[in-house]
Design brief:
The chain is α+β, with helices and mostly antiparallel strands. It contains 11 helices and 16 strands. Strand 1 and strand 2 form a beta hairpin. It binds zinc ion. Zinc ion binds next to loops.
Length: 411
Amino acid sequence: MMDFASLANQVMLRCDQLGAITQSPGIVDRRYLTPQHRQANDLVAQWMREAGMTVWQDAAGNQWGRYHSTDANARSLVLGSHLDTVPNGGKYDGMLGVIAPLAVVHHCFENGIRFPFHIDIVGFGDEEGTRFGSTLLGSRALTGRWKEDWQLLRDENKVSLPEAMAEFGLAFDKVGDATLKPDSVLGYLEVHIEQGPVLEDKHLPVGWVTAIAGAKRLNVQVNGMAGHAGTVPMGMRQDALAASSEMVLAVESIASQFGIVATVGRLETRPGAVNVIPGQVNFSLDIRSEHDHKRDAALQLIEEVFRDIAQRRHVDVNWQQTHHADAVHCDPYLSQTLSQAIQLSGHNAVSLPSGAGHDAMAMDAICPVSMLFVRCKGGISHHPGESVTSADVAASLQVIYRFFDAFSPDF
Ligand SMILES: [Zn+2]
């Protein structure tokens, strides 16, 4: 039996080492196409070589390693996640999904264990989108879904995406070379911290993901009438904030009623003075579910209730959709194999949806996908307090190993 505990300690150390590569001293901050991206790729490539893998970097700056099958004509099982972070992020979001499978491959290499499929591990250069404001640039390059107008994207220092790519030794017009042929890939497994409190609540180290929630985002505008806070009687007001407050509470109760999640995370009041009745409010609405039809039904009801509230309070309401992504469902065979691997590792195999977006969403365009969540302390992520235990990492390594063992390329 493998010594998963000491392998897990190595994974923890490597997450610390990667976490030390930062563009902002004192915090974890590593963005796409920066010198720190280069350093992280180089370090991961070195670990990949030590694990007996052939390494390369693709046309989008993603770092790859291949653990070859005994069969030269085999197809690949891809595992990976992202190596970039948000500013002041943690050491595990993304990195764990690269380092954990790498540790298992390293062990297999040292013990001469080979599989009837290649194992490709990828560290994506950009998932968070913190440099250019567009997420999943790394994984979307694999699907051939980069958009021509992304050449206009610029970072906070006005450096364009093509300029940053050139600086990194890549070319914007060659990014299509990173596209994977769907028939070369068997499937994709992403190991990721949960970023939520469910596994902790259930006292379980890992869980498998049913689906990645589809999200819609809207900007809502409520127009009432500004007026003097001292002179306009209560019954004669068209208070845009009082109306918006009812709307926010309606969002909360409708989301609960439909068993989905919906959030008003930003709200601005105009003119925003202590002695003026709010004349206009702009707020955001983010609504998600692993079931698109549930999300859409809830949104429809929310819109009806918004109209009712507006009519009753003599204000106008309108909204604009700014984002739409449908849910991605994890593949039944991969998920079943994962679930069995969890049980064989001695744990209850619980499933849960992912409320957050992941590289697996992009990968779904080219191959079946699956995800393994690892418990994280307090559900905290995108924060220096992000924390996983070595014991939980050991559990994830055991699951990955058993997944390799059980996975059949002929499914
Ligand atoms: Zn992530």
